[in-house]
Design a protein that fits this description.
The protein has 382 residues and is α/β, with parallel strands linked by helices. It has helices at residues 14-25, 66-73, 91-99, 118-134, 149-155, 176-182, 189-206, 220-237, 297-303, 324-333, 349-361; strands at 42-47, 54-59, 81-85, 104-107, 138-141, 159-160, 212-214, 248-253, 257-263, 315-318, 337-341, 363-369, 379-380. The strands form 3 sheets. A 6-stranded mixed β-sheet has the order 7-12-11-10-8-9, with helices on both faces. A 5-stranded mixed β-sheet has the order 2-1-3-4-5, with helices on both faces. Helix 4 links the parallel strand 4 (104-107) and strand 5 (138-141). Helix 1 (14-25) runs antiparallel to helix 8 and helix 3 (91-99) packs parallel to helix 4 (118-134). The longest helix has 18 residues, at 189-206. The radius of gyration is 21 Å and the shape is globular.
């Protein structure tokens, strides 16, 4: 083991991250109830492969359920994919999932997608269970069991200003006992409530403060979308195995869904500590720095995107301004718009050069978190 090695605290389970992403997609500015008969829902679709690559993230829209929106919009097969939903799907969505040949479905144990009279909801859920049982798809409730999130939030530079309030931590449904009965979880209400509250507290902790402003002004709904996307990037950054800093990146299609996601870290299959771990600020012998072997979040998002063809209005979001090398990759694939978070008030000359390059070569929007202007009032998670 190298001298200077330190354990990288990260969100240890990709399934935890995917469920957090699905829950936060339900709070997207784009998310609305398909109709009065249904609750709005968030969705994340992943390939069931070694890296659990994110294929798409989306949510319900007017007249379209989350499952329907993804399966009708995403131009690739969802065969063998794993689906994460913020609610148990209705019978119509279940038929779409079966026709799409997904391998498994995980959902959060709150009120199901269909709403209305208890008897009608119960009947629909029975049909859902029956269809899943007769298909090849496995389905179950999933609750993240995240740990060390306070250390994670510090490493990925998450802040919370004095205007922020706990959003998710108080979202354990009051009708949990009824939901448990509908979801066939009788006898597990207390344990479910404890795990749900813990998971929601973790999600609160991992979300960056949404308060700030953009250097270039856009419409309010567009800025809300930008801020929400950057928060998703911070959730992805929690999976980084970079020992010093986590960075997250996502790609957004103007068709209304996210088609790529990545975070910085070591190559696939690398065993941590078998590769250099020293940061740029630690003086080491030549050849021991981690920089050359780490893959940046932007590169991973581009390499593992589900749609290879980039369209003119696609957007790249990142928790920090892309470096000059990543800018070359982004420009090469044809992305013209980038939205990122301001690095710091006192930028180095390299950071300033990188920002100047971004403004010259891209339609670049930089978000200034509120803490950058009123640092004395900030509470940083620790």
């Amino acid at each position: 083991m190298e001298r200077g090695y330190k354990i990288a605290t990260r969100l240890g389970n990709k399934k935890d991250m995917c469920m957090f992403l699905a829950l936060h997609m339900e709070n997207s500015p784009m998310c609305v109830s398909p109709s009065d008969k249904f609750n709005k829902t968030g969705i994340v679709v992943c390939e069931s492969d070694k890296i659990h690559k994110v294929v798409a993230m989306s949510c319900s829209r007017e007249n379209l359920h989350a499952v329907q929106h993804v399966m009708l919009k995403v131009p690739c097969s969802l065969n063998n994919c794993t689906v994460y939903l913020s609610r148990k799907p209705c019978s119509t969505c279940t038929t779409f999932l079966i026709q799409g040949s997904v391998s498994s479905v995980y959902y959060w144990p709150m009120s199901p997608e269909l709403k209305g009279e208890d008897s009608a909801v119960e009947e629909d859920l029975k049909q859902v269970d029956q269809m899943f049982l007769r298909s090849h798809i496995s389905s179950s409730v999933f609750l993240p069991i995240a740990d060390s999130v306070f250390k994670i939030s510090s490493r990925i530079k998450i802040y919370k200003c004095t205007e922020c309030s706990s959003h998710y931590a108080e979202a354990v449904p009051k009708d949990l006992e009824k939901n448990s009965s509908l979801l066939n979880m009788q006898g597990h209400v207390r344990i479910c409530a404890e795990q749900m509250k813990n998971a929601l507290c973790c999600l609160d902790c991992l979300l960056h403060c949404p308060h700030g402003e953009f250097e270039k002004k856009e419409k309010i709904d567009v800025e809300k979308m930008h801020t929400h996307a950057l928060q998703l990037c911070y959730l992805l950054a929690a999976r980084s195995d970079d020992p010093d800093r986590g960075v997250g990146c996502i790609l957004y299609s103007q068709n209304g869904y996210f088609f790529g996601a990545g975070y910085n870290g070591y190559p696939i299959g690398a065993i941590f500590a078998n590769l250099p771990c020293a940061g740029r600020n630690i003086k080491k012998e030549s050849g021991t720095a981690k920089g050359p072997v780490l893959i940046h979040a932007e590169a991973n998002a581009l390499l593992f995107r589900s749609r290879k063809k980039i369209e003119e209005n696609d957007v790249l979001y990142c928790t920090k301004p892309p470096c000059s090398e990543c800018q070359n990759y982004i420009q090469f694939v044809g992305i013209k718009k980038i939205v990122s978070v301001q690095e710091s008030l006192q930028s180095s000359s390299n950071q300033q050069d990188s920002t100047d390059s971004l403004k010259s070569n891209f339609e670049y929007y930089q978000w200034k978190p509120q803490y950058a202007e009123c640092s004395g009032k900030i509470t940083k998670y620790s």
